[in-house]
Amino acid sequence: MSFFTEEHEKRKLPEILRFKDGTPLTSPDEWEKRRLEMIDLVGENMFGKMPPKFPVRAELVGTNDRVVGKKVVFNEYIMFIDTPKGTAHFTFYEYRPKDKTNVPTFVHIAFKPEAPHRYTPVEQIIDRGFGIVLAYQTDVTSDDGDFSSGIAKYLPRSVYNIGKITLWAYAQSCLVDHVMTLDWVDKTKIASIGHSRLGKTSLWCAANDTRITYCVSNNAGCSGDAVTRQKRGETLKQIYNRFPYWFVEKYGTYQDDVDALPFDQHFVLAAIAPRKLAVGSADLDVWADPHSQLLACMEATKAYKFLGMKGLVCEDRLPTPGDVWQDGDISFHETPFGHLLGSYDWDRYMDFIEK
């Protein structure tokens, strides 16, 4: 028996290739129905279901062709979202290589608006021939229990029953609306990306928005890209009690009985299939738990194989620092470092997208 099979049985993980009523999937034609069923389960029990799409428009408010030694075309915009409660808005930024077309492009909800930033190495990204469109996390809505801040005021929790991760994911999808209008972007290589809580955001955005062709989740860990059952480090109870506003209240009802969850995080990863997925882990980030991140990728691989794809191609063992597995449709790597979206990680993600 393989290591991954043993872990699946030991942790009693829910099956992704069975419908909610227990009926097994028999044909790839049934996958989309199951994929949407899994999104509904995750939305209802953890993040909240994504609000409906409302009209958006982007207003250019500034431009600068001297950024990063004149390598970059920089544009600053305001995104407007016309909701039934009024017009929500947030600022976002666009960086692209000069005089290039068919540019693979990252769509990023970022921890800081400044770029370059330690989590957003713009020059490195541009030098690899990529573009990036990003918004600052708290410009979208505050990272706390205030549901009157930013776009949260116009997508009220009382109406939509959503947490902050869904609000950030909704904004990330609005950025995709803008990216789809840009003639310099390679529409076959649009990648959502995020780190930590914003890695959870990237996963949830990509699961819901099929225009995203590559999803990048870096150190998303608990309630993100790591299996929750028997996880090391951060637990459901710890994350919910510290950050209840990221989630819907129903998620808190599972904190003392994780096995009662009708899903686990491999459902979120699998819901991205058949599009590409990249997960980054770090040896010293025990809180996120690289072992459970790898297991989630292997569980999601079952969906890819069901669709005639490869999923994650890796050795049948726990990950170790320096592992880079990118021969399939899921990429996984582990750094020897801690909780960081660093230069090394960005290069691995760009390697994967360039394959």
List keywords for this structure.
355 residues; alpha/beta; Rossmann fold; 10-stranded mixed β-sheet; globular
Quickly describe the structure:
By secondary structure, the chain is α/β, with parallel strands linked by helices. The chain has helices at 3-11, 31-47, 67-70, 122-127, 137-140, 157-160, 164-179, 197-208, 236-242, 266-270, 290-306, 343-354, and strands at residues 56-66, 72-83, 86-97, 103-110, 131-136, 185-195, 214-218, 276-282, 324-325, 330-335.
Characterise the protein shown here.
The chain is an alpha/beta fold and 355 residues long. It has one domain (3-56, 97-132, 156-354): Rossmann fold (3-Layer(aba) Sandwich), CATH 3.40.50. Helices cover 32% and strands 23% of the residues. A ten-stranded mixed beta sheet has the order 1-2-3-5-4-6-7-8-10-9, with helices on both faces. Helix 8 (197-208) links the parallel strand 6 (185-195) and strand 7 (214-218). The model has no long low-confidence stretch (mean pLDDT 96).
